[in-house]
């Protein structure tokens, strides 16, 4: 069974199906995913980046230009009242858009979402866009407005849900735009530390149970803001051990919880950032991910015999890439895009720095 | 992903047929944007959100708008703007908050893993300042899924905000008795303890927790939850007692390790002892720097190193093979650091 997963003919066949699933995600989705109605930009990022990791970006179901234009359509660059309280950035979909002109806030309740801004930027980078239509200043000012006193960030100007997920999105955005001056790094750092639990990993907010997704968000944020070295040796030791202990065959997201395909990415990437992924068993991991593969539709689910969904499909692909699955492009573990897209970003940074002089 | 609640929205009369809505022209979703990642919306969804967009555009604060947000929220409980707008209307129209609490109770029951619905409940309780039913409600949800992250986060918020600590330890104890591997319950125990006491001071409390852990480990040795908790308690104790390790923990470990029974050879026990040996040996290495001739110290290091290398081999080839690479790496660390004392 384990060898079968690496058999070139089988790999090729499964890749074809995966491509089909990702293309479908970019076209039409069933009404069962209605709770993702405000997160279409996230879905597009999963699908586009998934195709990129499969080295199949040439099989996009739409032209690159139309996809890029579509993503930019979600950008709010200007508010109605002129001041920004966290409005600018990307919406997740046009489900509440009311006007023909989309890059201006349409109404009082029209606002961006940090995870969607992060997703839009990642998708644009993956598609090779040069980010020239991004309103950096507006996005960064918005991030500044969304940061709370404790260092955490809310996702939007509308809810006060604040946790490590949105801090992670903000860190990615600052990293991509190559400007950290709008975020209070010291406060962000102390918020992250307050999310570290007695188990040695991170919870979604202070005192919440240690969780694989939160741990990824925290560790990737620390890495991106260059603060990973501020943790003590003992903290790093406990963190690594907690993450390594998550592997059963696949990975679990919490102690004594069943394993789930998405944690092959959340925990896998965390371990990669910490430099200890090679201490896990790659074959067992790959084997589990394919136990959740759907031979009809081509996507991955969280558990065997469950319905696949775009998130677990993308996380499964990323999880496989991390453990050197044949034919897959490597991913950048903290940014969750292909190494190729990341190199493109590095080139952009180079260009931007030359333009200053 | 939570289930769609579409079924629960039964529009007896379509909005376009209702005389009270005749002055509103629904705004359809922009077709051009809908070409990519299109969701196959139901007719109900299209209609309700058409009217919802129109209402948002003019920011209408009315009873009919309030009713509309109910349909919109049930169609997509993850749409945070719908809930946000509904809260604005709740305040503006002076709605009955108890009724709203009843409504959100029903919605959470059918969408217990959705972020927005728990946020909404929190907002209502903040306005009401009546937390009386909240512990019971989270218990109801946790009865169905004792590890529901949202329910636990919400419960912690309620307890902290309204200082409802009195029965929490009993609740946690009950949960751990029912399922000793319920890590959410262990986390809640730590939450309770660290809020109730200053753990940098409370020798007695920490010792009580050690006893609790050892009892639970004795009952079920291969349980990461109790071992993780034990490590945290010990870390606090060591700080208070200047590196004096709780002797009873070592005695417990040694008894388990000496039985030789496979059932007792939990990877958590072995790695716990290996880590203890490591930090102890490092301390002794430091002492050796000032007194290089201490034969007794060298002998102790040798004992620790040999024991650890033995356990690491057992972990790698028998008891925890999936992490074999890690155990082998730790073994090479031991050899590098203390190899000269093992010969
Ligand atoms: Zn999952």
From TrEMBL, chain A:
Domain Prenyltransferase alpha-alpha toroid: 16-337
PANTHER family, per database record: GERANYLGERANYL TRANSFERASE TYPE BETA SUBUNIT (PTHR11774), GERANYLGERANYL TRANSFERASE TYPE-1 SUBUNIT BETA (PTHR11774:SF4)
EC number: 2.5.1.59
InterPro entries linked: GGTase_I_beta, PGGT1B-like, Prenyltrans, Terpenoid_cyclase/PrenylTrfase
Protein name: Geranylgeranyl transferase type-1 subunit beta
Subunit record text: Heterodimer of FNTA and PGGT1B. PGGT1B mediates interaction with substrate peptides.
CDD domains per record: GGTase-I (cd02895)
Keyword Magnesium among UniProt keywords: yes
Known catalytic reactions: geranylgeranyl diphosphate + L-cysteinyl-[protein] = S-geranylgeranyl-L-cysteinyl-[protein] + diphosphate
The UniProt record lists the keyword Zinc: yes
Cofactor(s) needed by this chain: Zn(2+); Mg(2+)
Protein's organism: Brachionus calyciflorus
Family per similarity comment: Belongs to the protein prenyltransferase subunit beta family.
GO cellular component term of the entry, any: CAAX-protein geranylgeranyltransferase complex
Keywords: Magnesium, Metal-binding, Prenyltransferase, Repeat, Transferase, Zinc
GO MF annotation terms: CAAX-protein geranylgeranyltransferase activity; metal ion binding
UniProtKB/TrEMBL annotation, chain B:
InterPro entries from the UniProt entry: Prenyl_trans_a (IPR002088)
PROSITE patterns listed in its UniProt record: PFTA
EC category name: transferase
Enzyme Commission number: 2.5.1.58, 2.5.1.59
Chain coiled-coil ranges: none
GO CC annotations on file: CAAX-protein geranylgeranyltransferase complex; protein farnesyltransferase complex
Listed cofactors: Mg(2+)
Record key words, sorted: Magnesium, Prenyltransferase, Repeat, Transferase
Gene Ontology MF annotations: CAAX-protein geranylgeranyltransferase activity; protein farnesyltransferase activity
Record family assignment: Belongs to the protein prenyltransferase subunit alpha family.
Protein name from the UniProt record: Protein farnesyltransferase/geranylgeranyltransferase type-1 subunit alpha
